[in-house]
Amino acid sequence: MISFVGAGPGDVDLITVKGRRLLEGADIVIYAGSLVSKAHLDYCKDKCKFYNSAYMTLEEVIEKMVEGEEKGLKVVRLHTGDPTIYGAIKEQMDFLDKKDIQYEVIPGVSSFTAACSAIKSEFTLPSLSQTVILTRIEGRTSVPESEDLEKLASYGASMAIFLSVQQIENVVEKLKRGYKRGDVPIAVVYKATWEDEKILIGTLNDIVDKVKKEGINKTAQILVGDFIDSSYERSKLYDPKFTHEYREAKN
């Protein structure tokens, strides 16, 4: 069995209990060394073999998986955050399907939720936004034209933008055109939950200067929307005048 495991955003304690148990029992761990904290490997047994996928091709990763499976070993493919978001796991699973090798996917805490927690906010606020858009700007990996950042911003929803801080000027330019205003709140969270985490809060009008001043050009989440700093309506869930399945309204 091959186990794709989400390691979480940085803090090793944010891996799931199931993910930690799989690591502890693994014979082989193939980890995303450019993003996953190596402290996770301290929980593995002494004879566990480690492979850093940052230096490997897809074919080399699959080769190690197949070798482990043929020897009856437990293999963990350790991804950063949640493996189902920008994890490039589909192409790995397709290879395993062709070879009739069984696998499982263990979810993890994503950097977008970790970043929102870091700024002590909530994406979905009544009267402001009930939608969260996860996206990225085009780079070496293309983005469908229908998902251009400017078009997505025009919805006015809360947004979490991955893998894009290196193009912060371009990001902000597109967001301004989409939101049609420059005072939209924005947060850039560098290495959320890591010891060297940095949080920058501003608006579309001033965030570029703040990011450049700090020299942040990778490993950061960009959160955008009025949920960061605006008034909102109280939730109906705990409103004393609201009746639901578990509680009657109070006059």
From TrEMBL:
Annotated ranges, domain Tetrapyrrole methylase: 1-207
Pathway annotation from the record: Cofactor biosynthesis; adenosylcobalamin biosynthesis
Keywords, alphabetical: Cobalamin biosynthesis, Methyltransferase, S-adenosyl-L-methionine, Transferase
Biological process (GO), any one: cobalamin biosynthetic process
Entry's Gene Ontology molecular function annotations: precorrin-4 C11-methyltransferase activity
Pfam families from the UniProt entry: TP_methylase
Record has Cytoplasm as a keyword: no
Keyword hit for Protein biosynthesis: no
Family the UniProt entry places it in: Belongs to the precorrin methyltransferase family.
PANTHER family: COBALT-PRECORRIN-4 C(11)-METHYLTRANSFERASE, SIROHEME SYNTHASE-RELATED
Protein name per Swiss-Prot or TrEMBL: Cobalt-precorrin 4 C11-methyltransferase
Originating species: Sporanaerobacter acetigenes DSM 13106
